[in-house]
Specification:
- Its main location: membrane.
- Keywords: Membrane.
- This is Peptidoglycan D,D-transpeptidase FtsI family protein.
- It is found in: Membrane.
- This protein is an alpha+beta fold and 594 residues long.
- It folds into 2 domains: 181 residues, Penicillin-binding protein 2a (Domain 2); 336 residues, DD-peptidase/beta-lactamase superfamily (Beta-lactamase, 3-Layer(aba) Sandwich), CATH 3.40.710.10.
- It is 37% helix and 20% strand.
- Strands 2, 3, 4, 5, 8, 16 and 17 form a 7-stranded mixed β-sheet that branches.
- β9 and β10 form a beta hairpin.
- The longest helix has 34 residues.
- The chain is elongated.
- It starts with a helix and ends in a 17-residue tail after the last helix.
Length: 594
């Protein structure tokens, strides 16, 4: 029979064993945490704390390249060089005592100054001033940002008190080409604007560290060297073509100057894929000198909104065709001024008697009154829904830093005048990319494809990551797209500006717009000040590319006709660049009047 006295020692033994096992288990868990789970963190800590001397190993920020792999932004190596004043003093003392055969600082400093381009007295002052402040100082800046060639010459001096650390710097080999898109980084390496900022996670490198201990003579102690390698940033591949971008920048720069405009842009989109092939504007920045132009930093293509004016008539026409059963030869009777039952009115840019306009004729003559009457063939809520489906007020899916979206007032806020004004592009705002996306859908069989500016990010390990994009969606019937292409082609065939935009051998379709600019001080609109737009796609029979030319406040010609010659040159260059074949069929001429 087991007695109470014999059970007690056994129980104590079991309890003691349990405590020992618990403590041992805790140590094992902590050991696994240190050596496995958080091993990288502890290695980094050991590099920083356990070893006193060392340097940061900078990774290289990734390149930004065009669709063909040509570099638009890259990194170059510069070096930040430092001296060890206390070691210089020690070696000079040893030389004076006959204990060293090294060259004295008085002599070496002359070589250093010659290599770095500094005055020898300034180089010597770096050491003397530092020692005067702190006789034991082991650190003084010699010169930052020196070239690789200078770095190599300094290292050839083989002095133990001179060290240089790598410091990658950003370079843009083509200057201002695509500068509005690329953006720039600050002197501290932080991404500040454009794609550099939007895709910083792809481009940014992860620094490593090199740590070691030195002896009193400045020599690295064997066995103390520890290195954590840096990881380079990824390569960002864009959809744009560098040469086409350059051409468009030259073209819009000349146009802005000739028209004495405040700003201008040329936007080129592949209709079938939504890929942006050029996004040029003037004025624009050179990322190598981002502060050279006051007030110019990013891209107004993505950051500016405007009232689209008559380009919106194409969206209204597509709506009444798709949802209202209208056709190219459907008619309304409209004069140069129309007063509607709700008290609203519409006035054309030219006076004319009552015409029996076809829908085609309304687009050709860009009649505000005519499109207002056609807009009555569908309810305002249907028209509002179509504008939203076509992307107005929704942005572009490009994910550009600082991108704005247009503004379409909620339907319940539409007063009688707004109900008609929105039919011809007043009382709302949009952006160049939004307008491009809407017209690309009209041209592309009614399928809206999200716009894109970035093809992919290729990580340092070779992994390719493509941006997430919405799936293409059908927003119009295919038959509506066919009908709209015919009508918009007739706009470019029958309008007064037709000779300006003709490209021999090709069929072109499109629309113009002269949007008024709001007077933010006095209310209403500015007198005689406009935002002009001309957009078109080609070939009209099989659309492949869309071009939009915009001018902000042109002064020599204030109508959208100002954009005609530049549009013609831009579209011609696009067709040449992508080897688009000429037309093999004739356009169908449609009647303006019923």
């Amino acid at each position: 029979m087991t007695t109470r006295s014999t059970r007690s020692p056994r129980r104590r033994t079991v309890v003691a064993l349990a405590v020992v096992l618990a403590v041992l288990g805790a140590f094992i868990v902590r050991l696994v945490d240190i050596q496995v789970v958080n091993a990288d963190d502890h290695v980094a800590d050991s590099l920083e704390v356990a070893l006193g001397d060392g340097q940061v190993l900078h990774g290289t920020r990734g390149a930004i390249v065009d669709a063909s792999g040509r570099t638009l932004a890259g990194s170059i190596l510069e070096y930040d060089c430092q001296l060890d004043p206390s070691l210089i003093a020690q070696i000079d003392d040893e030389i004076a005592a006959g204990e060293s055969e090294a060259r004295p600082w008085e002599e070496v400093s002359g070589d250093v100054a010659e290599i770095t381009g500094q005055k020898v007295e300034d180089v010597r002052a770096i050491v003397t001033d530092t020692l005067a402040e702190n006789p034991g100082s082991q650190y003084a800046v010699l010169r930052n940002g020196v070239s690789t060639e200078t770095y190599r010459e300094l290292m050839d001096l083989k002095t133990p008190y001179l060290a240089c650390g790598q410091n990658p710097a950003r370079a843009y080999p083509d200057g201002a080409v695509a500068g509005n898109l690329l953006g720039f980084v600050g002197t501290d390496g932080d991404a500040l604007e454009g794609l550099e900022r939007s895709y910083d996670q792809c481009l940014r490198a992860t620094d490593g560290a090199l740590a070691y201990q030195k002896g009193k003579d400045g020599v690295v102690i064997p066995g103390t060297r520890r290195e954590q390698p840096a990881v380079d940033g990824g390569t960002l591949t864009l959809t744009i073509d560098r040469d086409l971008q350059w051409y468009m920048q030259q073209l819009i720069g000349e146009e802005v100057v000739d028209r004495r405009a405040e700003w201008g842009s040329i936007f080129v989109v592949d209709v079938n894929t939504g890929k942006i092939r050029a996004a040029a504007e003037y004025p624009t920045i050179d990322p190598n000198e981002p502060t050279a132009l006051e007030g110019v930093r990013g891209s107004k293509i993505f950051e500016a909104t405007f009232e689209p004016g008559s380009t919106f008539k194409g969206l209204t026409a597509a709506t009444v065709v798709d949802a209202g059963g209208q056709h190219a030869d459907s008619t309304v009777v409209a004069s140069g001024y129309e007063l509607f039952a709700n008290g609203a009115f519409a006035r054309d840019s030219f006076q004319h008697p009552a015409f029996t306009y076809t829908l085609t004729g309304v687009l050709v003559d860009s009649s505000n009154a005519g499109i207002s009457k056609f807009s009555e063939r569908v309810s305002p809520d249907v028209r509002y829904d179509y504008f939203r489906k076509l992307g107005i007020g929704s942005g572009s899916d490009v994910d550009f830093s600082g991108e704005e979206t247009g503004y379409l007032h909620p339907l319940e806020d539409w007063d009688p005048q707004t109900t008609y004004n929105t039919a011809f592009g007043q009382g709302l705002t949009t952006t160049v990319p939004e307008l491009a996306g809407a017209y690309a859908a009209i041209a592309n069989g009614g399928i809206k494809v999200p716009l894109s500016l970035v093809e992919s990010c290729t990580r340092a390990d070779g992994t390719v990551v493509e941006p997430e994009k919405p799936e293409p969606t059908r927003v119009l019937k295919e038959s509506t797209s066919v009908e709209m292409r015919k009508m918009l082609e007739n706009v470019f065939l029958q309008s007064s500006f037709a000779p300006m935009v003709e490209i021999p051998g090709y069929r072109i379709a499109g629309k113009t717009g002269t949007g008024e600019k709001p007077d933010l001080v006095n209310g209403g609109y500015k007198r005689g000040v406009y935002f002009t737009t001309m957009l078109g796609f080609a070939p009209a029979e099989d659309p492949q590319y869309l071009v939009i030319v915009s001018l902000d406040e042109p002064k020599t010609v204030t109508s959208s006709a100002a954009n005609g010659p530049t549009f013609q040159q831009a579209m011609t260059q696009v067709l040449k660049t992508y080897r688009v074949m000429p037309a093999t069929s004739a356009p169908e001429l449609l009647p303006k009047f019923g």
